[in-house]
Specification:
This protein is an alpha+beta fold. The chain has one domain (3-87). It is 26% helix and 16% strand. The chain contains 2 helices and 4 strands, in the order H-E-E-E-E-H. Strands 1-2 form a two-stranded antiparallel sheet. The longest helix is centred in the N-terminal third of the chain and has 16 residues, at 3-18. The relative contact order is 0.17.
């Protein structure tokens, strides 16, 4: 498989994986002490105000530090929150 074809495949897989998200904000702590970058749309959906740069050190609204990781990492480590759509 050519590199660009494989890279396209990976991008498509990542896109289809991300499409499972229902924007509940669970993975970002919407129900307790959320990430300070977590915002809510008027329609009730949550989103990260800096999604492209979300991974790595972050803070919650109360100032607690944490490391943001991809949802795939949460799934692999079995750390998804109970109501997360990826648990369905």
């Amino acid at each position: 498989m050519k590199n660009e074809t494989y890279e396209e495949y990976l991008k498509e897989k990542a896109k289809s994986f991300e499409e499972k998200c229902v924007f509940c904000g669970e993975c970002c702590g919407s129900k307790d002490d959320p990430c300070s970058k977590l915002l809510k749309n008027p329609n009730g959906n949550f989103f990260c105000e800096d999604y492209e740069n979300r991974l790595g050190p972050q803070k919650t609204i109360s100032g607690k530090g944490f490391t943001c990781v991809s949802i795939r990492e949460h799934i692999a480590n079995k750390t998804t929150r109970i109501n997360c759509a990826y648990n369905r």
